[in-house]
Write a structure and sequence with these properties.
3-stranded antiparallel beta sheet, about 60 residues, elongated
């Protein structure tokens, strides 16, 4: 496994090392398995913040 290269696979919904599914099916890279495991929650939080900021602009 490659140090510092962890990905969240959107196809299999799991954390993978650098040797995994094609990058088109993954989010990352992340520095740790824990960071990769939180990828979907982090994306959801950012989307919510963007939506709220867009509503404030209206």
């Amino acid at each position: 496994m490659s140090e510092g290269q962890w990905w969240f696979c959107l196809k299999h919904m799991r954390v993978e090392p650098d040797q995994g599914c094609p990058n088109k099916d993954r989010m990352g890279p992340y520095a740790s398995q824990e960071e990769a495991a939180g990828a979907l929650q982090r994306a959801a939080d950012r989307n919510k913040a963007w939506d709220e900021a867009e509503q404030d602009d209206d």
